[in-house]
């Protein structure tokens, strides 16, 4: 191996395949990153618009997951945990949205998805990337991906709050118990997938079973690790379903709050 070859780094490093062609693949390799770009990009735009709107997020008894918990200057009935940030001048969603958003943006699966779809790093397996250098996640801003474990802890709290919201959704508009509407069902389905996505996380798998030398001495943690490992196999699926479900719940509550539709009450 020549000295020049040994000194090459990044995407042209000595450990990379020396293929001058962009790719030798003949299938539609670009379809997957394109779909990811369109769908994930649409969600980011939608979530950003809704977060900055600061209105139409509460239709009693339903609270949008984008605004939960509502800790700012919220409309009457939306603040179940008080308003400690009432003086916050911007939308109440911007106080809390950083935590679920940070959890998803640093997620191992989502990293793969948007690295390929948005940064083309690489766009697909066996396809050359357009970048001339590669530093991994050792420099800003990608070094922030290492905060994923801490965002996971925050995501657990958010999942608990959303579960509490589902309990409150078994009321009518006057907050009388023993009622259920379509909004209740949508919120229930959403929180189930939120929990599946959160608990199937790689960080959860490490938290319950990591740093153990002998599983035989920790049977409870071994069972938890085995269960989470099973969930982890479908982590990508839960990531996408929960992405759609949280947007659908917010859209439904948005339309209710604006008076465009009426809630379907089952009992």
| SSE series | HHEEHHHHHHHH
Strand order of the largest sheet: 1-2
First-last Cα distance: 75 Å
Instruction: Tell me the fraction of residues in β-strands, as a range.
Output: under 5%
Number of discrete domains: 1
Report low-confidence residues grouped into runs of 5 or more: 1-7
Organism: Knoellia sinensis KCTC 19936
Keywords: Membrane, Transmembrane, Transmembrane helix
Transmembrane segments: 29-49, 87-110, 150-171, 177-196, 238-261
Protein name: Membrane protein
Walkthrough of the structure:
This protein is mostly helical. The chain has one domain (29-258). 51% of the residues lie in helices and 1% in strands. The protein has helices at 3-7, 31-53, 93-96, 98-105, 108-117, 148-168, 182-199, 202-209, 219-232, 235-258; strands spanning 58-59, 62-63. β1 and β2 form a beta hairpin. The longest helix has 24 residues, at 235-258.
Brief sketch in words of this structure:
The chain is built from ten helices and two strands, in the order ααββαααααααα. The protein has 267 residues and is an all-alpha fold. It has a two-stranded antiparallel ribbon with strand order 1-2.
């Amino acid at each position: 191996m020549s000295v020049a070859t040994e000194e090459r780094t990044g995407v042209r490093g000595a450990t990379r395949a020396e293929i001058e062609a962009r790719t030798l693949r003949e299938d539609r390799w670009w379809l997957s990153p394109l779909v990811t770009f369109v769908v994930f990009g649409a969600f980011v735009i939608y979530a950003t618009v809704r977060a900055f709107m600061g209105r139409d997020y509460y239709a009693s008894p339903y609270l949008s997951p984008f605004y939960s918990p509502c800790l700012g200057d919220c409309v009457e009935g939306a603040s179940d945990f008080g308003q400690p940030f009432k003086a916050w001048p911007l939308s109440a969603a911007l106080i809390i949205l950083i935590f679920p958003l940070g959890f998803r943006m640093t997620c191992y699966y989502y990293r793969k998805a948007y690295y390929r779809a948005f940064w083309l790093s690489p766009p697909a397996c066996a396809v050359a990337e357009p970048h001339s250098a590669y530093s991994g996640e050792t420099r800003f801003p990608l070094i922030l991906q290492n905060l994923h474990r801490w965002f996971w802890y925050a995501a657990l709290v958010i999942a608990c709050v959303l579960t509490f919201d589902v309990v409150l959704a078994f009321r009518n508009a006057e907050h009388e118990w023993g009622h259920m509407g379509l909004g209740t069902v949508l919120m229930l389905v959403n929180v189930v997938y939120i929990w599946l996505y959160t608990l199937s996380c790689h960080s959860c798998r490490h938290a319950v079973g990591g740093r153990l030398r002998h599983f035989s001495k920790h049977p409870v943690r071994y069972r938890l690790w085995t269960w989470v490992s099973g969930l982890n196999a479908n982590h990508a699926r839960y990531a996408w379903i929960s992405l759609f479900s949280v947007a659908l719940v917010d859209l439904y509550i948005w339309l209710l709050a604006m008076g465009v539709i009426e809630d379907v009450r089952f009992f």
